[in-house]
Structures are given as structure tokens and as C-alpha cells.
Task: inverse folding
């Protein structure tokens, strides 16, 4: 079972910061999940939200600030890192799940991943399904995953079927889907039949994990230490 630290060890440390990522590795995470956006001066930074309101009380958008301006915002002394800063601290053999929050980050982010020789251990995912479909065609050697969220409420079977036609490396399903066992089992069977990996986000509930673990390949969790220790005990 692959355990990815969601925005780093975000249950205990400021999300998407170098400290959270380092602590995730210290806890034994197999890898990191993080979010990528672009600044006004075309630098790729690691931050989830489109603007700074939730984290810093400022409604200004990330894309409206230069990197130097963005670096002035800190969570408990931890500045917003660049993607390159994070790539530079990933230990050998560890995994990276880079979520593209915007179309604009794609080419520059892929170039950086190549530069740090991390392509083999990187999964690129996004809710922008059109983007992922295009990238799968352009970069067949890279692992791409479709992130699925609210769209599942409409017609989950047809949605998953249509996305699988693009032959992704992985599908990233919300943990809430497991609350509907019939749909969950059907969808997981469809995905596995195509030899596609299944990652569940963002799962912090060990009981739910135990109920679905045989159907999945990985968990994206805020509370990485709890999951790592739980799996160690079970093994």
C-alpha cells in the first residue's frame, strides 16, 4: 500500500510547506502529494488555493503576485515554497504526486520534474480532465492520473468509463465514494480491469481504510504517521 502525505504531514504542520514535506518523509511516507500554481512572473509554487484568503486572510490571487511578493506570506514562519525547492528535498526512491491546479503550470512543471530526474517516480494528476487527456498523448512515458470529485454525483459509471479510454496510469477517487459500496466496488472493478492504479483522497479514517484496502493501491492522507504506523502493525 502506497501512503502519500497530503500537502505533506498537514495534520500537524502547515500544509504545502517544506517543513510539512520533510516531516512526512520522517514519518515514513512513501511520497508526497502537493498542488502547483503559477505566479505573475511565471514561477511555479506549491499552494492549493487560488487566492490567499483561507491561509492568510488576503483575497489576492496567487497569479497576481510575483514570487518575491508571495514569499512574504508565511505560515508559522514557513514561506510558500517553489516547486523546485520541494523537488530538491525529495529523497531518492520516494514518490511525488503533483496536482496541476492550472493548465498553465503543465509544461514548466514537467520540465522541472525532468531536470531533477524524477519522472519515473512522479504521478501528475488534475481535476482538469481535458489537460490530463492531452498530456497523456503528448508524454506517453509519464504517469498521469485523473482526479475525480463532485462529478461523480452525476453519472459515476459513465464518467469513469470515459476517462479510462484515455489509458491513464491512475485514477484518484474521493474517499466519500466508499460510503456507497455498490458504486465503489463496481468502479474499482472497472478500473482494475484496465490495470490502472487506484488512489483514495483524502482519507484519514482507519476504519474506512480497512474496509476498502483490498480494492485500492494507495492512500493520500493528512495524518501520515497514523497510517504508516497502522500498516506496520498490520504487517
Result:
Amino acid at each position: 500500500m502506497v501512503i502519500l502525505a497530503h500537502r505533506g504531514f498537514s495534520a500537524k504542520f502547515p500544509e504545502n510547506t517544506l517543513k510539512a514535506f520533510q516531516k512526512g518523509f520522517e514519518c515514513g511516507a512513501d511520497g508526497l502529494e502537493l498542488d502547483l500554481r503559477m505566479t505573475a512572473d511565471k514561477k511555479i509554487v506549491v499552494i492549493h488555493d487560488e487566492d490567499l484568503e483561507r491561509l492568510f486572510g488576503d483575497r489576492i490571487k496567487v497569479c497576481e503576485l510575483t514570487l518575491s511578493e508571495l514569499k512574504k506570506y508565511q505560515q508559522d514562519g514557513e514561506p510558500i515554497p517553489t516547486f523546485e525547492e520541494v523537488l530538491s528535498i525529495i529523497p531518492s526512491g520516494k514518490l511525488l504526486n503533483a496536482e496541476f491546479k492550472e493548465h498553465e503550470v503543465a509544461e514548466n512543471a514537467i520540465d522541472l520534474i525532468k531536470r531533477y530526474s524524477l519522472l519515473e517516480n512522479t504521478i501528475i494528476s488534475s481535476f482538469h480532465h481535458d489537460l490530463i487527456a492531452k498530456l497523456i498523448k503528448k508524454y506517453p512515458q509519464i504517469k498521469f492520473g485523473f482526479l475525480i470529485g463532485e462529478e461523480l454525483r452525476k453519472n459515476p459509471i459513465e464518467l469513469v468509463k470515459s476517462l479510462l479510454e484515455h489509458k491513464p496510469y491512475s485514477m484518484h477517487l474521493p474517499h466519500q465514494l466508499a460510503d456507497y459500496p455498490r458504486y465503489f466496488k463496481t468502479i474499482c472493478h472497472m478500473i482494475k480491469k484496465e490495470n490502472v492504479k487506484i488512489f483514495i483522497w483524502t482519507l484519514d479514517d482507519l476504519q474506512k481504510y480497512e474496509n476498502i484496502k483490498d480494492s485500492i493501491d494507495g492512500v493520500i492522507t493528512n495524518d501520515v504517521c497514523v497510517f504508516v504506523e497502522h500498516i506496520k502493525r498490520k504487517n
